[in-house]
Predict the structure.
Amino acid sequence: MRLTILGGGGFRVPLVYGALLGDRAEGPVTHVTLYDEDPARLTAMARVLADQAAGVADAPAVTATDDLDEALRGADFVFSAIRVGGLEGRAADERIALAEGVLGQETVGAGGVAYGLRTVPVVREIARRIARIAPEAWVINFTNPAGLVTEAMAEVLGQRVIGICDSPVGLGRRIARLLGVRPEEAWIDYVGLNHLGWVRGLRVAGRDELPRLLADTKALESFEEGRLFGAQWLRSLGAIPNEYLHYYYFNRDTVRGYQEAPLTRGAFLRDQQREFYARAGREGQPPGSALAAWDRTRAEREATYMAENREAAGAGAREESDLESGGYEKVALALMRAIARDERATLILNVPNGSTLAALDARAVIEVPCLVDANGAHPVSVDPLPLHAVGLVTSVKAVEREVLAAAASGSRADAVKAFALHPLVDSVTVARRLLDGYAAQHPGLAYLR
């Protein structure tokens, strides 16, 4: 089985390769092709992967290329993990939004809209190339904004593209651990859009255990989401929100925190990863040094994740138990196994809605538990959302649709509408200034007129 990783020079690639190494006895992948437009990043990442594979029998072979068509030929699975505009673009997205007093996070608010506007045209072209060169391949999308990008690629690839994110899985694991439940034995009632969802129940043998957690203030305030949102607000909601909802529920606090920070998150990661790639790509380094540099950089990255939000909430530093993500590479591996071997699995994924949520149309990509088999991912029926959640979900989906429309039409008016309709942008005038600022910064938005 051949796996192609688009954005193969990206920082998270060793997580995927490490998961493949750990699963090689049963794993379906024998060959990995890394594709990236930046040869220096590819060289550095190839060295990290070589360090990982050192001494490992039957490690998947790795090749690297900056030719997209070559990368896609013969692929059975394609991971899409690109970043249009790089981390320099992310830093600019944050800076321009904060100057207008609104959030510039890469998937939420004005920053997410800007990132989507320059990413959608690129992923649509990639989807067309995949349909032509590797029409039988399954595409697993990591590219942010994941729900929006998955919906854009599904216009071409239909059910053969599936979006994944580790946030809901990690949240479900933390809740299960607090309740003394094995995550694999629990049904996590999670529903929403990517980076905009809620755990509404955690059922074991048919019994919902979440009310027991909501009633326990000490337990609620012992994990990351509890400290971010506070026990009182979680009990008011009757659910545990995805961490990204902190940007919505505590918007003024987070904007102020980001404005006061010495560096935006994008600028921090840009500088951090620039140093990493320079070190990992350096000639003449001893064996293992590239992997060691990656490990150090990753540890710092995880420890500082959402630091401004924690500061705004008074939540303190991340604890060891909070550093465990949902393991998006493990979700991807489980998804590949289920499809390749027709082994049924239940995973929280980004897929077309069908009739799952009545508030949205059939093609709207949502994030819900899915049953996966050789025919792909099938969303499970869920209870209706409460009205406050319906409002957020439909508003943000409307913004995503305007981004898709603007990327297809090249219409400046559609792009302004995407910014202006977002719940975290409070003025049409601000929306127009945001678009002017982003268009001046990003050549990838030159198509808007």
Remarks:
- The chain has a mean pLDDT of 93.
- The first strand starts at residue 2 and ends at 6.
- The chain is about 50% helix and 15% strand.
